[in-house]
Structures are given as C-alpha cells and as structure tokens.
Amino acid sequence: MGEKWNRCATPVYLAASAAIIDQLSKFAVRSFVEENSVIEVLPSFNLTFRLNPGVAFSMLDNINYGHFILAGLALVVILFILSLFLRGKAPKSRVATAALGLIMGGAFGNMIDRLLPPYYAVVDFIDIYYKNYHWPAFNIADSCITVSALLLIIVCWKED
Fold this sequence. Notes:
Layout: H1 2-32, E1 38-42, E2 45-52, H2 66-86, H3 94-115, E3 122-130, E4 133-134, H4 140-159
Antiparallel strand pairs: 1-2, 2-3, 3-4
C-alpha cells in the first residue's frame, strides 16, 4: 500500500486543501453575507450569497432529489480519479496530477454543500461582471474544477 499511497499523496493533499479552502470561504459567506445580497468589493467584482441546487448556471435545479444525484456524481468522479492513481494509470505530468487533485477537491467541496442541511445546495458567492453583464455566481470549488479542466486540456493538447 505504501507505493500506491505515494502515487495518491499529492492529489489527495491538493484535494483536501482545495475542499477545506472552499468550505471555509463558504462558511464565511454564510456567516457574514445575507442571502441574495450583493457587496461591492472592487469594480467588476462583488461578493454575494446565492444558493444553487443544480449544476453550472443552475441547470437541473428542478429535479427531485437532484442534490443527492449530483452528490453521487461527484463521488463517482472522485473515486474514478483516485482509482487512476491507485492503479498507476494517472498522467505522469505534475500539472495534470495537480489538476486532477484540484478537480477532486472541487467536486468534494460542492458535494459537501449538496449533502448538508439546511440548504442542500451549493453556495455560490463570487460575482464577476462587466458593465451590466454578470457571469453566473460561482465559488472556489467551481474555480478549481474549471481551471483544472482547462489545464488538463492544455496538457493533453501539448502531449499530442
């Protein structure tokens, strides 16, 4: 098990760090920001507190027991990525290893939100905008997943 753990250590530590930072930031937002309010921080950047029971852009937010289904999908993603490392099938690139760890952390952070009362929904709080166009609110976990997915695409593209 020692060799298998060594293959998993970096992505697991990154996943844990990402999930902890994500959950701490969401705890701060829930504690200090009123739901559906907006706090201007910088031009083009606000803090808000939105609940998202669905996936990106609130898609699938009307499905019965959707939070359990989405939490289950997150768990499948986490277990799949872990299995890649345990079986020695993960990419050798350090960037790809880090990206997979951050995807696991982001998936875990949002999974926690979907399973915990009272909301059973993901807490989104980052509001980026330009003039009157606001990108849908998101959180640290979403950022980890999105940036890491882009990094994986770049790594795969460069390897070909």
